[in-house]
Amino acid sequence: MIQADMRYGALSAKVRALYGKRLRTEDFARLAGLKSEAEILDALRQYPGWSRALSQCASGGWSYVGRIEVEAALREELRLEYLSLAHYVPREDRPLMGFRIRIAERTAILNALRRLKVGKYGMGMPPASRIVVLGKVDYKALRECGSYDQLLAAAKGSIYYPVLLHLRPEPGGPLPDYTTAECLLRTAYFSHMFRIARQQYSGATQKTLLRAMGGQADLLNIIHILRLKTYFPDTPQEEYLTILLPFHDKLKPELVRQLCAALDAGTVFELLKQTPYRDCFEGIQAVDAEEYYRRAMYLFNKHQLMCAPPSIYTAMAYLDLKEMEMMVLVNIIESVKYGVPYHAALAELIGA
């Protein structure tokens, strides 16, 4: 069993140094006022937290740099920081630190499934991360697969293979439902992470890990319920539990059932006032249901980074915070390029 100790001192110092390079609210506002992706790219090259990967846009021989190229460079910075932090992670923590690899694998599988179903990648779908160190899927085969069996073969050996095998259609049958596959693959991911936390950790570190993952499951289930109540109000109550994660922290099963049985999204919000998550949903103007989740996880991860004793979760929290910073930058690029609303409130939270 792994307990919190001084082994994480160097990791914590590295994380704090990286976090000190984050963009602030005024930086986001300045970027949002620019006129093109090229101007954003030039400006971001001046920020040490993003300059390393973005400098490759100019030196990599690219003939054109637009939204897709800038976003790819931002994701490359995430990859580079993941790899740099991995050098400070004790060997016994590496299975848990592989959470980014497992998420990248799941994204690649779902991208491939959607392409098989609709004949092309969905507009705006995020590319799979280039984090392939110790990966258990064949990324190239997933990009090129032309059938479900080829997708299945590409994922053999991964934590997702049993789920995909269970979803395998009969010969000539339809491909599995995308939403069902997404939920089952996410369940497989959480099962894997909970298993590592319970078997390999103890004490305060285990408590932090279980609380973080359980809180993510709680919030994701709340968001799923809100999304269904808002966009698919006629969904039968018994179908709710088929897409919710079978994990929880503070959101007990009886309350989940009450939320599923609520008349509409407004009733769900009223019920949420009775939960430990009420502060995540009261007095906040969010552009969509997912923003509530992002806000809650941001505040939790920032607290773990700044106030909690150093542990492996220090690195995990930082990488989540870095990804949220990237999401704000992607929103800025889209607002400049396509005129979509700039999420100023979220930028102010993350840039504080």
What report would you give on this structure?
By secondary structure, the chain is mostly helical. Helix content is 64%, strand content 0%. The protein contains 18 helices and no strands. The protein has helices spanning 9-19, 25-32, 37-44, 51-59, 67-86, 94-97, 99-118, 139-144, 148-154, 161-167, 178-200, 203-231, 237-240, 253-261, 265-272, 289-306, 312-338, 344-350. The chain starts with 8 loop residues before the first helix and ends with a helix. 34% of the residues are buried. Mean pLDDT is 86; it is low at 122-129.
Main β-sheet description: none
Alpha-beta content class: mainly alpha
- Work out the radius of gyration: 21 Å
Shape: globular
Q: In terms of per-residue confidence, which ranges show pLDDT below 50 for 5 or more consecutive residues? A: 122-129
How far is the first residue's CA from the last residue's CA? 36 Å
Compute the number of strand runs.
Answer: 0
Helix content range: 55-70%
Instruction: Summarize the helix and strand pattern as letters.
Output: HHHHHHHHHHHHHHHHHH
Mean pLDDT: 86
Quickly count the helices: 18
Beta-strand percentage range: under 5%
What layout of secondary structure does this protein have?
Blueprint: H1 9-19, H2 25-32, H3 37-44, H4 51-59, H5 67-86, H6 94-97, H7 99-118, H8 139-144, H9 148-154, H10 161-167, H11 178-200, H12 203-231, H13 237-240, H14 253-261, H15 265-272, H16 289-306, H17 312-338, H18 344-350
Helix pairs in contact: 1-17, 2-18, 4-5, 5-17, 7-11, 11-12, 12-16, 14-15, 16-17
